[in-house]
Known about the structure:
- The structure is a single chain.
- By secondary structure, the protein is mostly beta strands.
- It has a single domain (10-48, 57-106), classed as Jelly Rolls (Sandwich), CATH 2.60.120.10.
- The chain has strands at 12-13, 19-27, 36-48, 58-64, 66-71, 74-79, 83-86, 92-96, 102-109.
- A 6-stranded antiparallel sheet has the order 1-2-3-9-4-7, with no helix packed on it. Strands 6-5-8 form a 3-stranded antiparallel sheet, with no helix packed on it.
- The two termini are 24 Å apart.
Amino acid sequence: xxxxxxxxxxxxxxxxxxxxxxxxxxxxxxxxxxxxxxxxxxxxxxxxxxxxxxxxxxxxxxxxxxxxxxxxxxxxxxxxxxxxxxxxxxxxxxxxxxxxxxxxxxxxxxxxxxxx
Length: 116
């Protein structure tokens, strides 16, 4: 078993195509997770992740805040307590509302999805 607190995990600035986004690798292969990695994202008010696609799914849980997820050609409102499945090869982006940060957990399969 492995346990740690989010406050003890380094927050790394996401740069390529993102604005005001930090990622924390909460659990991954380096901590002994054999199949999935759990990442925690903090997105500043008005910030966003890159608009992109890739061949693996995302499983996302909104911890706090409000915003939208771009999914394909639509935008879907997000709020604390929402769960989102982003399908493989689906164009997507997470955006925080202009007046508050958005914090989320994102799980991805180990392998190409976790290359740094």
